[in-house]
Design brief:
The chain is mainly alpha-helical. About 75% of the residues lie in helices and about 0% in strands. It is built from 16 helices and no strands. It is found in: Cytoplasm.
C-alpha cells in the first residue's frame, strides 16, 4: 500500500504544493515566494523557493531560465550553509544538463549532488541524484552498468513506501527490458507502475507509464487503437499539468505507433509537431529522435533516397556528439530497414524478420 505521492522538490513555503500542480501555477507561486524571501533576506528560503522555480522552468522547456534559477538556488543555499539545499540545486542542474544533451556534465553534477545529499544527511536528495545517474546511463544504453543500480533504488523506494520513486524505478527497468526485447516483462512493470501511480495520485508518473504500455501494445500486440487510447489518456494529464516535455514525447510515440501501422501521413504530422516542440525547448535528444522518425516516414512516402541518407548521416553524427550510442544503433538500423547506404546509394531492402536495433527510450 502506497501513500499519496509527494513532490520533495517543492520545499520550504512551497511544500504544500501537490505533485500534480500545474507547472505554470508552480512557477507563479514559486516566483512570488522567491521575491518575498529575497526581500526578507532569508537565503535558506531563497534556495528552497528557487529550486521550485528552476524545476518549473525546466519542465516547461525554459532551459535558459532554468539554468539561471538552479545556479541562484545553489548560491543561496551555500550562503545559508544548507548542504541539503545545495544538493537539491545541483540535482536540478544535473537533470537540466541531461535534458539539454550534456550527458558528461549531467553525470558530474548528479554525482556531486549525491555526495552533497550524503553530507547533508538528506536521504531523498541523495536517492534522487543516484536515480538521475542511473537514468543518464540508461538513456545512453549502458544497461549493464545501471541495471543493478535501478534495482537497488527500486528496493529502497519500496521499503520506504515512496510511491513516486517506486514508479520511476519500475519505469526505468521496464524500459531496459523493452529495449532488450523482453516485452512481456516490460509491460508488466509499466502496468504495475501505472497502478501504483494511480493509487498514489501521481499523474505525471502514470502518464509516463501509460506511454510505455502503449509502446509495448503497439510493438507486441500490433493493437493500434488500444495504443492510441492509452496515449490519449496520458495526454490529458500532460496538458492539465503543462508537462511540455512529456507531451512532446507522447506526440512522438503517436508517430511511432502510426508508423508501425503503415499510416505514414498522420505519422508525419505527429513527428513534425513533436519536432517543433522539442526544438522550441532546445531538447536535443527528443529533437534527434523526432527527426529520425520523420526521416523514415518521408522515405516511406517516396522521398529521394539521397535526401534520406543525408539526413540519417547527419543524425548519426549528432547522436555521436550527444553520446546516445543506443539511439545511434537505431539510425544504423534505419539504413538497413530503408535499404539505403550511408553514401545514399539505393540497395536491396533488408530481409524481413532480420534483427533490428531497438528504439531509444524517453526521458522525463
Amino acid at each position: 500500500m502506497y501513500a499519496k505521492a509527494l513532490a520533495p522538490e517543492y520545499q520550504g513555503s512551497l511544500s504544500s504544493l501537490s505533485v500534480n500542480s500545474s507547472l505554470t501555477d508552480v512557477l507563479a507561486e514559486g516566483t512570488d515566494r522567491l521575491r518575498a524571501a529575497e526581500q526578507a533576506g532569508s537565503q535558506r528560503e531563497v534556495a528552497r523557493s528557487g529550486l521550485a522555480v528552476a524545476e518549473a522552468h525546466r519542465r516547461l522547456g525554459h532551459v535558459e531560465e532554468a539554468d539561471r534559477a538552479w545556479k541562484a538556488s545553489y548560491r543561496a543555499a551555500r550562503s545559508a550553509g544548507d548542504v541539503g539545499a545545495m544538493a537539491w540545486a545541483v540535482w536540478s542542474g544535473g537533470t537540466l544538463a541531461r535534458q539539454r544533451g550534456s550527458l558528461a556534465l549531467a553525470r558530474r553534477l548528479l554525482a556531486l549532488a549525491a555526495e552533497l545529499g550524503k553530507r547533508g544527511d538528506d536521504v531523498v536528495a541523495r536517492g534522487y541524484s543516484l536515480a538521475g545517474l542511473a537514468e543518464t546511463g540508461r538513456i545512453q544504453g549502458d544497461y549493464e552498468a545501471v541495471h543493478t543500480l535501478h534495482e537497488q533504488l527500486l528496493a529502497e523506494a519500496r521499503k520506504r513506501g515512496e510511491a513516486r520513486h517506486t514508479v520511476w524505478a519500475l519505469e526505468g527497468i521496464a524500459q531496459i527490458h523493452r529495449n532488450t526485447g523482453s516485452y512481456d516483462t516490460a509491460f508488466a512493470m509499466f502496468e504495475e507502475a501505472a497502478a501504483i501511480a494511480a493509487q498514489a495520485d501521481d499523474q505525471r508518473g502514470r502518464a509516463w507509464a501509460l506511454r510505455g504500455m502503449a509502446d509495448i501494445v503497439s510493438l507486441r500486440d500490433k493493437d493500434v487503437d488500444r495504443a492510441l487510447a492509452l496515449l490519449s489518456e496520458a495526454e490529458l494529464a500532460c496538458r492539465r499539468m503543462k508537462l511540455t516535455s512529456a507531451l512532446a514525447y507522447n506526440l512522438k510515440m503517436r508517430g511511432n505507433v502510426l508508423f508501425r501501422a503503415g499510416r505514414y501521413v498522420p505519422a508525419r504530422e505527429y513527428y513534425e509537431t513533436a519536432l517543433a516542440e522539442f526544438r522550441a525547448m532546445s531538447e536535443p535528444r527528443g529533437t534527434a529522435l523526432s527527426r529520425l522518425g520523420l526521416a523514415k516516414t518521408l522515405a516511406r512516402l517516396g522521398q529521394d533516397p539521397e535526401v534520406t541518407a543525408a539526413e540519417l548521416d547527419d543524425l548519426r553524427g549528432e547522436l555521436d556528439r550527444i553520446g546516445l550510442r543506443h539511439a545511434r544503433e537505431m539510425v544504423d538500423a534505419a539504413y538497413e530497414e530503408l535499404g539505403i547506404s550511408r553514401t545514399g546509394a539505393h540497395r536491396a531492402p533488408a530481409i524481413p524478420g532480420a534483427r533490428k536495433a531497438p528504439e531509444a527510450v524517453a526521458a522525463r
